[in-house]
TrEMBL record:
EC number annotated for this UniProt entry: 3.2.1.21
NCBIfam families assigned: BGL
Keywords: Carbohydrate metabolism, Cellulose degradation, Glycosidase, Hydrolase, Polysaccharide degradation
Upper classification of the organism: Bacteria, Pseudomonadati, Pseudomonadota, Alphaproteobacteria, Hyphomicrobiales
The name this protein goes by in its record: Beta-glucosidase
Native species: Pleomorphomonas diazotrophica
Amino acid sequence: ALSKRFSRDFVFGYATAAYQIEGAHDEDGRKPSIWDAFSRIPGRVRNGDTGDVACDHYHRMPEDVRLLRSLSADAYRFSIAWPRVIPDGRGPVNEKGIDFYDRLIDELLKAEIKPYATLYHWDLPIEQHGRGGWCARDTAYAFADYTDVVMARLGDRLSGIMTLNEPWCSGHLSYLIGEHAPGERNLTAALAAIHTLNLAHGLAMQAIKARRADLPAGIVYNAKALYSASERPEDIAATERYRAFHDGVFMDPVFLGHYPADVVEAFGPIMPKIEADDLKIISTPIDFLGLNFYAPERIAADPALPFPRARSVQAENVPRSAMGWEIHAPALDRLLTDLDARYELPPIYIAENGCAQYDELVDGKCDDPGRIDYLEKHLTVLADARDKGIRVDGYFVWSLMDNFEWSHGYAKRFGVVYVDYETQKRIPKSSAVWYRDLIAGRAQAASV
Ligand code: FCB
């Protein structure tokens, strides 16, 4: 059985993010983030949804930790809201804000669940956005200061810490494609944001290590599983350019200590200024690599577009999730194998994997066989990759519960637990029971 292919030292967990579940947007000293502002702009988020209430996790935290325990969690990946801890981005620490995470961590430890904290899952304090946000180097230094505050107060009890979640979303998706806060479409701004994000990560790594050298620390990427749309050499070359522009700009500086040459060449005059020590800071060794995986992308050459002169194309007649994303589990192997060939990788955690389905409550129950099928296929590919010798030490399902799915609002459900937003009742779907049983049924000894 699938469960026997994982041993008890493999970490199985559930993932969430602050803005997507907490609510209590103006309580206990929290101030707005870019997502509070963005979600209020008409037309930016489906249905005008915001994270004001979300899953009300801020008030239901002990109940949610009990839920995690009842679902056999080894670990829980949550994010810390910068606008709760240092509401203005820089300046005074909000004791009540950090106290929430202090209590969360203690509850988790009491429940024998390992806490993994993400420092930034997209909720930049609005005041820091006013100081230039991710386009300004100041934000990297402010992030390092915030990291130090978190480490001083919470670092002793964490099992792992992640600096940034999916910097591609904070760079490309937020500043170039304009779908995420702050919703800009400006290549120069995006390039500046990419460099600040990299620098923020490196400075945060140093801040973490200065407080607690033994705490496993890393970053989480949504590195892309790419297929060339055809065997034509143009498409194959376009796929490599696409990879450099979307993944290489983050991973090359961290793992290789430089930016991809073709990106630097393409954007020379509009590249941000890189100061003397930046690349040294950015390439501070990480202890683990977090990867979020959902779907593959298929890439074709398009000479009419600016660099990377490539576009994503949709495969026809393939299964898709409720997001419209292609479901193709072998792509997870492709991702792991490609990265393994490209870089000297530390141990990997799958920090998110899951899918949106058209979930409905029927007689108080939610049956989601499509999600079980998705998870089972991806975990099988993962077990195979481990057998081949790729070191993956853990897996977090996205998500513990349905939540605010960014520009899609509450319309898309990713949880293994159903949330009835009217009553805030949590109802484990059949996938939660399946995943719980998988975790509980693991082999005792280390798998061979
Ligand atoms: C990832 C995000 C996460 C969630 C999933 C579906 O890109 O990290 O917050 O929205 O996608």
